[in-house]
Amino acid sequence: MSESWTYVCTTAELLPGEMKVVFDEVTQAPIAVFNLDGSLYALEDRCSHEDFELSAGHFDAAEGSVECVLHGARFDIRDGRALCAPAYEPVAKFPIRSADGMIFTRDDREDC
User: Fold this and answer.
1) Residue 19 exposure: Cα atoms within 13 Å on the Cβ side
2) What would the pLDDT profile of 7-25 be if each residue is shown by its tens digit?
3) Which contacts (CB < 8 Å, 24+ apart) does range 56-59 have?
4) Tens of pLDDT along 79-101?
5) d(Cα 22, Cα 38) in Å, to the nearest integer?
6) Residue-range domain boundaries for the chain
7) How far are the Cα atoms of 83, 86, 110 from residue 34, in angstroms, in the given order?
8) How far apart (Å, rounded) are the C-alpha atoms in residues 71 and 82?
9) What is the C-alpha separation between 5 and 53, in angstroms, rounded?
10) For the chain, what is the HEC assignment?
11) Residue 112 has pLDDT above 60, yes or no
12) Fewer Cβ neighbours under 10 Å: the N or C end of the chain?
């Protein structure tokens, strides 16, 4: 588990309806950070159906979901749960911290 927070960007650089990808400084896990109407969420940037970048797909800010471009699996960005086939397993959700106009995240899984 990574104890160190990874800098994502400033709050001004991630506007509502946008996403940004970073790599955890310790585990190198790809993390997609989403701004959903001013609330920030972070998910592992990997589809649970097939190991592919979720960030390559469409972030639907109206629905709060991201769709994998490879096979169309969709995930709720708030909790990582799979919303439709072919994915049935959730994607990992990570903590977000915002301080002094900066956004941070980290891979907090026990077994990476």
Assistant:
1) 25
2) 999 999 999 999 999 999 9
3) 59/17, 59/18, 59/19, 59/34
4) 999 999 999 999 999 999 999 99
5) 19
6) 6-105
7) 17, 23, 23
8) 13
9) 22
10) CCCCCEEEEEHHHCCCCCEEEEECCCCCCEEEEEEECCEEEEEECCCCCCCCCHHHCEEECCCCEEECCCCCCEEECCCCCECCCCCCCCCCEECEEEECCEEEECCCCCCC
11) no
12) N
- Write the CB contacts of 26 (distance below 8 Å, at least 6 apart in sequence): 2, 3, 4, 106, 107
Q: How far is it, in rounded angstroms, from Cα 17 to Cα 75? A: 15
Q: What does the block give as tokens for 23?
A: 């790599």
Separation between Cα atoms, residue 81 and residue 54, nearest integer Å: 13
CATH H-level superfamily of 6-105: Rieske [2Fe-2S] iron-sulphur domain (2.102.10.10)
How would residue 110 be classed by pLDDT, with cut points 50, 70 and 90?
A: confident
State if pTM tops 0.70: yes
